[in-house]
Amino acid sequence: MESLNPESKMKVLITGGKGQLAQAFKAFFQTQNVTFRALGREELDISNPFAVFEVIREYKPTVVINCAAYNLVDRAEEAFGEAYKVNSLGPYNLALASKENGCFLIHFSTDYVFDGRKGDLYEEEDLPRPINKYGWSKYLGEKGVRELLEDTLIFRVSWLFGPGRQNFLAKLCTWAQGQETLRLAYDEFSVPTYVKTVAEVAWKAYQKGLRGLYHLTSRGYCSRLEWAKFFLAQRGIKRKLIPVSAQSFGLPAVRPFFSALSPKKLEQDLGIILPSWQEEVRRYTSTLSGEPL
Fold first, then answer.
1. What is the pLDDT at residue 252?
2. Between the CA of residue 271 and those of 76, 115, 233, 268, 274, what are the distances in Å?
3. Which of 70, 84, 92, 134 is catalytic?
């Protein structure tokens, strides 16, 4: 008997299949009866145009979701070539192959395309001014996609967290395991955003027919220090938190001081109200079990 669910006929290709955002899409699609294939870098290096075209021609996806990214912000200062290949050339290759094969591309960018000097929430119309090489690589990536494709969705996200070890909350727990005192930046602000919500809302936007560039984050914003304090309290972890300037860490890459994004446009076009970052941290914390550390 033919399925009555139209999504059962579509196929989705997910790149960066081992990352936390891809894992969120995989978990979500398993509940939606959406056929998908998630490929890690070993299976598909998106910086290789021949590999990209071969996979897309063979799998024939309806939608390509690019979750592949080079996220090593500090290392990108010395290894810009690697960041450029994955964050700039990779999305271009996917856009070109999607255009040639009639696929729809969903791509993810970052708040780090901004310099952080606006003093208010960034909107989609604000002019990007990256101040580190990671930010430049991501900006060039979204720019390449937009130049090739009119019919696409690009989401800028920030401070992603969820299951896995490659996010701030996971690192925070690791630090707390061996230290009673933690030094955290009080002067770096953005929006913690739960990957589960990103997957759910991005797919809803695609289904509703939204196209173009959107900011997809929680509501509100906070400093690294405020985020850590709130999360540790939710987990019942007591540590002494010392406020320090982000510059005191002496990291190779300069971070934007205030790169919080406004999701207002997305909320209006979807007719939804996104949860606050505090609600999202509570939602994620409720999925964790066992001892806090």
1. 97
2. 38, 30, 33, 5, 10
3. 134
Give the predicted TM-score (pTM) of the model. Answer: 0.94
CA distances from 59 to 12, 17, 35, 164 (A): 9, 15, 11, 28
Tokens standing for residue 96: 């070109």
In the numeric block, which tokens belong to residue 20?
Answer: 């936390």
pLDDT per residue as tens digits for the range 216-269:
999 999 999 999 999 999 999 999 999 999 999 999 999 999 999 999 999 999
Domains of the chain with bracketed CATH: 8-164+193-218+259-275 (3.40.50.720)
| C-alpha separations of 147 from 141, 178, 187, 212, 271 in Å | 10, 48, 35, 11, 28
Residue type, 275: P
Q: How far apart are CA 281 and CA 234, in angstroms?
A: 8
Is 134 tagged catalytic? yes
The token duo for 277 is 């970052």
Give the separation between CA 195 and CA 16, rounded to whole angstroms: 14
